[in-house]
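step=encode ok
step=design start
structure_in=
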């Protein structure tokens, strides 16, 4: 079960940051290509430590071989590993995908559950994956903390949490619940295209005047 979070009203600074990022990234949304919630689930598992562009290239061919939860539940693991090899960590990812697919088939009649708590019960599915699926596939207001969200949240002073879950809780406390999903995509885009890990483009940053990290410390997810 999720821990209860005390929500605060968004500060003027927080609202301004979101407004500026929205103007800068009006196209901010999930860049993974998918046809249904299960395809998205597989794509999110593959996206760990891998670019969305690479995942989209892999899944374009992967879903021609294995398509449904039933297909993946009965997949030959050697074949699956070969198909997803270029995404990295292919052994763990293949095991997680097969385990999640088997759970979906056995416990949810072959359909991806639309409840966050039920998604977390799937083998191989963690908070980030469950939050993305909830926000993107089912239209929920959820915050998924990947490396971009983790880094940008620290630099903007939204969180000093040491773990992704700590950052998730901090963001839930400083943002209005209706902004969770939007903020998640905005922070990802900002981290991906401007507030980069090694060389942030501070001179081009739309929220530089509001940024807490000056000069920028090297903040990475441990």
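sequence_out=
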């Amino acid at each position: 079960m999720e821990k209860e979070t005390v929500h605060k009203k968004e500060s003027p600074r927080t609202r301004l940051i979101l407004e500026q990022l929205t103007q800068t990234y009006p196209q901010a949304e999930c860049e993974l290509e998918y046809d249904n919630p299960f395809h998205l689930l597989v794509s999110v598992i593959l996206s760990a430590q891998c670019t969305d562009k690479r995942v989209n290239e892999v899944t374009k061919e992967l879903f021609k071989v294995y398509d449904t939860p039933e297909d993946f539940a009965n997949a030959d693991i050697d074949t699956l590993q070969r198909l997803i090899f270029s995404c990295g960590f292919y052994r763990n990812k293949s095991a997680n995908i097969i385990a999640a697919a088997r759970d979906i088939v056995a416990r949810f009649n072959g359909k991806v559950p639309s409840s966050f708590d039920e998604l977390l019960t799937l083998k191989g599915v963690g908070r980030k994956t469950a939050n993305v699926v909830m926000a993107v596939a089912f239209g929920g207001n959820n915050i998924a903390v990947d490396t971009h969200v983790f880094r940008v949240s620290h630099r903007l002073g939204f969180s000093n949490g040491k773990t992704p879950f700590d950052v998730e809780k901090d963001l839930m406390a400083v943002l209005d619940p209706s902004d969770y999903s939007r903020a998640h995509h905005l922070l990802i885009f900002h981290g991906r295209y401007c507030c980069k890990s090694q060389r942030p483009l501070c001179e081009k940053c739309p929220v530089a005047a509001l940024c807490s990290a000056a000069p920028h410390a090297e903040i990475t997810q441990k």
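step=design ok
step=annotate ok -> Residues 90-107 form the longest helix (18 residues).
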